[in-house]
Amino acid sequence: DQQVKQNSPSLSVQEGRISILNCDYTNSMFDYFLWYKKYPAEGPTFLISISSIKDKNEDGRFTVFLNKSAKHLSLHIVPSQPGDSAVYFCAASVNGNQFYFGTGTSLTVIP
Amino acid sequence: SAVISQKPSRDICQRGTSLTIQCQVDSQVTMMFWYRQQPGQSLTLIATANQGSEATYESGFVIDKFPISRPNLTFSTLTVSNMSPEDSSIYLCSVESGDLGNTIYFGEGSWLTVV
User: Fold this and answer.
1) Cβ contact, residue pair B103, A104, below 8 Å
2) What confidence tens digit (pLDDT) does each residue in B29-53 have?
3) Are B78 and B46 in contact (CB under 8 A)?
4) Could you tell me if A96 lies within 8 Å of chain B, comparing CB atoms?
5) Do the chains contact at A40 and B102, CB–CB below 8 Å?
6) In this predicted model, what pLDDT tens digit does every residue of A9-53 receive, in sequence order?
7) Contact criterion met (CB below 8 Å) for A65 and A76
8) Residues of A (10-49) whose Cβ lies below 8 Å from B
């Protein structure tokens, strides 16, 4: 059973607007979360992380929000740029050990 | 969707030995990917395994250390050779589906501890 889910396989956003990528999880013990960016046939790139003691973490254009009660994680990219077009997947773990991965959301930023 | 089975899920290995991890997918896929996730570190791509050809290794990874087999479109193995404690890690196989590889599936991972 998938413990981490990304229910939107794709998302299209106009350049300059906000991209919101969502991730839901089922295990309330998860306390550390990551977002990765990935181009086809390339290795993923770590983007941003958040631990469960926080509800927001920001790094430049990327902000991750954590709603523990809803078991929901989101990544906001603003402003979106064409170079942001890629697959984004989330990962969750207990104590940073074994990670469980979402299946990804393909973001297309339209110039 | 794709269901990926990996084994072993966990093992404790002696220094200097080798261990082969198996990855079975429930559908035919062209490319399979092998990753490593060391404690506290990000996911790192080791190599891409195509059926019928040599695997393509990322910088820092070599075939002698991580030989890969890909005998058919549903199966691959990764061997971690001559293990040292630095090889202690979770190893994951992955496949991508969709026209643009935009859906990613991971196995449950193989957690190796080298002592």
Assistant:
1) yes
2) 888 999 998 877 778 999 999 888 8
3) yes
4) yes
5) yes
6) 899 999 999 999 999 999 999 999 999 998 876 778 889 999 999
7) yes
8) 10, 34, 36, 38, 40-44, 46
